[in-house]
Amino acid sequence: MSELLQVKNLNTSFHTEDGVVRAVNDVSFALKHGEALGIVGESGCGKSVACLSIMRLIAQPGKIEADGIWLEGNDLLKLSEKKMRNIRGNEMAFIFQEPMTSLNPVYTIGFQLQEAIRLHQGLNKRESWKKSVEMLKVVGIPHPEKIAEEYPHSLSGGMKQRAMIAMALSCEPKVLFADEPTTALDVTIQAQILELMLDLKERINTAIIFISHDLGVISEMTDRVIVMYCGRIIEESATRNIIKDPKHPYTIGLIKSKPQIHEKIDKLVPISGSVPNPLQMPSGCPYHPRCEHAMEICAEEMPEKTEAGSGHHVKCWLYSRKGDQVRQ
User: Helices 125-138 & 157-169, crossing angle to 10 degrees?
Assistant: First the structure.
């Protein structure tokens, strides 16, 4: 697999009357063709904002800064808005968390699919309608010809989400962002949609970025995982390493707070404390006020990225030489 997407030192901030909110801080990662990458963390950790920033979908008062965001060598930050519109939906697509807010209630499902296909692929009205129906069939919607004529309000949550996936995949994008794609769906429909996305990934070699707080979904769907906290990447490795041998105390806390079907426990172990106010971030490592392993240096300096195993990187003083010196 070759590199498809590269993000280097991405920063996204929002200038408000109360001060500057730094939603994404120095985020860097790469994505290969056909790879499934998971981004996990609590609500408000910057997962969705980071991905929306990559697609340049952050509106004022938001500000995006980065050393570069490259899609197959082309820096997206240097493209005109017209060229970015051609990339969105065509080379990069986004499945949003709530399909009802993303589908236009006054147009039929087929019309909305058809519009995207005509815009990006240049097909005529008849050809684009035919492909719209074909895409609804691909995502497992029964009677696609009939559903194409329906309005969003007449579809169930699962059907609307399938329609959104069909729309996102209609132009066979190279990168697909899936932001909590199964939220509010029952477990049966959730399993069907996740299976569908994996199948489509294998068939058209689309790289997928799953944004989720559900480690169960992430463990089943991804090859590699990024853990975010307060807008920063604090741990990154292959999925099996993150799940079986997490390093950062925050990652360990996330895994411990998730119920395990094969283990009998009296109660879940929550992470103590709460996410800090983004306008009043603590000094040093932002997790130190909640960390049971916090040292004096944790409140003074932000740890650098350290290798904690082959391909396993973590930002924590517990794994750095400087941290070792402090403990001694």
Answer: 130
Give the contacts of 203 (CB within 8 A, at least 6 positions apart). none
- What secondary structure does DSSP assign to 266-310, as a single string? SS--PPSS-PPPTTSPPSSSTTGGG-TT--GGGGT-PPPPEE-ST
Which residues, in sequence order, are bridge partners of residue 226?
A: 39, 236
Neighbours of 80 (CB within 10 A): 8
Q: What is the C-alpha to C-alpha distance for residues 117 and 110, in angstroms, rounded to an integer?
A: 11
CA angle 81, 209, 216 (to 5 degrees): 150
36, 94, 125 from 212: Cα distances, Å: 13, 14, 37
Taking the chain (328 residues) in runs of 10, the rounded mean pLDDT of each run is 88 93 96 95 92 94 95 94 90 83 90 89 90 90 94 89 87 90 75 81 88 86 96 96 94 83 68 89 94 93 91 93 55
What 3-state class would DSSP assign to 15? strand
CA dist 197 → 6, 106, 234, 258 (Å): 23, 27, 27, 24
Q: Which two tokens stand for residue 19?
A: 């001060």
CB 93 within 8 A of CB 164: no
CA distances in angstroms from 99 to 124, 159, 160, 167, listed in the order given: 27, 10, 6, 11
Alpha-carbon gap, residue 319 to 143, rounded angstroms: 56
Through-space distance between the first and last CA atoms of the chain, rounded to whole angstroms: 43
Q: What is the DSSP string of 144-168?
A: HHHHTTS-GGGS-HHHHHHHHHHHH
Q: Among residues 14, 98, 20, which one has the least CA distance to residue 53?
A: 14
DSSP state of 58: P
User: Does pTM surpass 0.85?
Assistant: yes
